[in-house]
Each structure stands twice: as structure tokens, then as C-alpha cells.
């Protein structure tokens, strides 16, 4: 009977030691929670980068295949105008349009 109680006490002590180790050590619960949070953050960042890559590949396809889109981009970013158009730039405008060359 004494042997059983001693073994029981040793097993309880061992279990308590293991639980304390899991909670307090560097490889324990704190590290697991940190790794879990890091994994979630990396997953979110990967999703954002995947979306950006999709949008960029879509824009590349438009630039390669859609001449109307190319003209729109050239006009918006570079301020180009056709020879039959007049570009008005107002001094109090907050939007700065670069002066372009006629086509």
C-alpha cells in the first residue's frame, strides 16, 4: 500500500512538473501562442500579396491586349493630349497634371 501511494505521489509530482514546464519554459505555451500569432500575421500578409499579384497580372494583361486602357493610362499618368484637344490647368487645382506632348 505504501508503494502505491509513493508511486502515485511521484506521478502527481511528475505531472505537475511537466505542466509547469509547459507553461513556463521558452518552448511552452507562450512560445506556441507567439508562433500562432506570427502564423496568422504571415497568412494575412500572404493573402494581401496574392491579391496584389493578381491585380498586377490583370493590369499587365490589359496593358498587353487593350489599346484603350493603354491610352487611358498614358493620359492619366503622363498628361498626354490629342492634337485636337486643349488641356486646361487651373492654378488653384490640388491635382497636378504633368504637361504632356501632343500625339
Automatic annotation (TrEMBL):
This is Septum formation initiator. InterPro entries: Cell_div_FtsB, FtsL/DivIC. One of its GO terms (biological process) is FtsZ-dependent cytokinesis. It comes from the Bacteria. One of its GO terms (cellular component) is cell septum. Signal peptide: none annotated. Keywords: Cell cycle, Cell division, Cell membrane, Membrane, Transmembrane, Transmembrane helix.
Amino acid at each position: 500500500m505504501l508503494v502505491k501511494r509513493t508511486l502515485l505521489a511521484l506521478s502527481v509530482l511528475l505531472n505537475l512538473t511537466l505542466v509547469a514546464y509547459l507553461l513556463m519554459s521558452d518552448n511552452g505555451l507562450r512560445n506556441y501562442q507567439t508562433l500562432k500569432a506570427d502564423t496568422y500575421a504571415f497568412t494575412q500578409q500572404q493573402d494581401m500579396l496574392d491579391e496584389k499579384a493578381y491585380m498586377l497580372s490583370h493590369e499587365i494583361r490589359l496593358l498587353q491586349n487593350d489599346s484603350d486602357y493603354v491610352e487611358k493610362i498614358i493620359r492619366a499618368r503622363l498628361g498626354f493630349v490629342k492634337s485636337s484637344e486643349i488641356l486646361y490647368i487651373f492654378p488653384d487645382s490640388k491635382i497636378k497634371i504633368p504637361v504632356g506632348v501632343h500625339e
